Amino acid sequence: MRWALRLLVALILMPGLAAAAPVRIKDLATVDGVRGNDLLGYGIVVGLNGTGDSLRNAPYTEEMLGGLLERLGVNVTGESFRPKNVAAVMVTGTLPPFARAGGQIDVTVAAIGDAKSLLGGTLVMTPLSAADGEIYAVAQGSIIAGGASAQGDAASVVQGVPTSGHIPSGARVEREVDFDFSRMSSFRLALRSADFTTAARIEKAINDDFGTGIATLMDATTILVDSARLGAVNPARLVGRIENILVQPESRARVVVDHRSGTIVMGEDVRISRVAVSQGNLTLRVRETPMVSQPNPFAPGETVVVPRTDVEITQEPGIGFAEVSGESSLSDVVEGLNALGVRPRELIDILKAVHAAGALHAEFIVN
């Protein structure tokens, strides 16, 4: 397993493979204003197998269930009912751009009470509102829970997260967002990652493709496209042509470290100045082995506990000083770090020390 991981890392860091390949503009930028809208709703799930809310701890579930039955013509005023197959949930989704009435979107359902599982439940008709308070979709359907749970008298087991799930195509769009893209005489491209070099290359690639200066660089994130210069042209067709233009992206030098898994990922442009590194481990071990001392039978005296402590200090020989030369290629940097012969987690500490010494010329990100 270890050799496979090393092979994968080596392939990722090989200069030939690490070189940035041309990327479509649609993968680097979005059209400003063409975005989704978050939806939120509060609903109720029925049909659970005794894993719903305990209504004593979640009175809002009982109130909502009573209101639902009242609207259906069932009079429950003054009645005492405490079903275990009902749960209150939050329903979330995203209304995609240009969504039309009658279209369907996916929604996520999550319990907000003390329900044990939503497995097998059905969401009852739930209106979904946006930030403006208007209802844009209505959700309903069977929930696909993301886990399972089982419980007995003395033990229980939970796998995954059974208190949340998804309903594919579970909401139907009832209201459209008023946005007429066809009448726009200009639009802006917004880069997902701000970079002046990449933005300038996108401007040049668009102007070269159309043979006219319709694109103007505004800042590190924004390129303005003036479609009016092309005459009577459909903006949607123009965007469809622009988003498939290939551009060589540029990115900052980064070193990303994940302490939990011991993963280290380096970008192609990472550079390390010439530096010498020494690494070794110091282990301090303290063992307590108390001894009980007691007198002979029927002899005077008392039983006492005599403490006994063993202290041991172990220092590994380490690697001495190893030189990491500041060459221009990433493969030389990796070769120099591998020459230290340390484990990944120890290499993380070395990179942190090299960064603190000012010899690591990259953005150092620790997760």
Automatic annotation (TrEMBL):
Keyword Signal: yes
Predominant location category: other
Pfam families associated with the record: FlgI
Location in or out of the cell: Bacterial flagellum basal body
Alphabetic keyword roster: Bacterial flagellum, Cell projection, Cilium, Flagellum, Periplasm, Signal
Keyword Signal included in the entry's annotation: yes
Signal sequence coordinates: 1-20
A GO term for molecular function: structural molecule activity
Function: Assembles around the rod to form the L-ring and probably protects the motor/basal body from shearing forces during rotation.
The protein's assembly and partners: The basal body constitutes a major portion of the flagellar organelle and consists of four rings (L,P,S, and M) mounted on a central rod.
Family assignment from sequence similarity: Belongs to the FlgI family.
Protein name listed in UniProt: Flagellar P-ring protein
Organism: Paracoccus alkenifer
Gene name tied to this protein: flgI
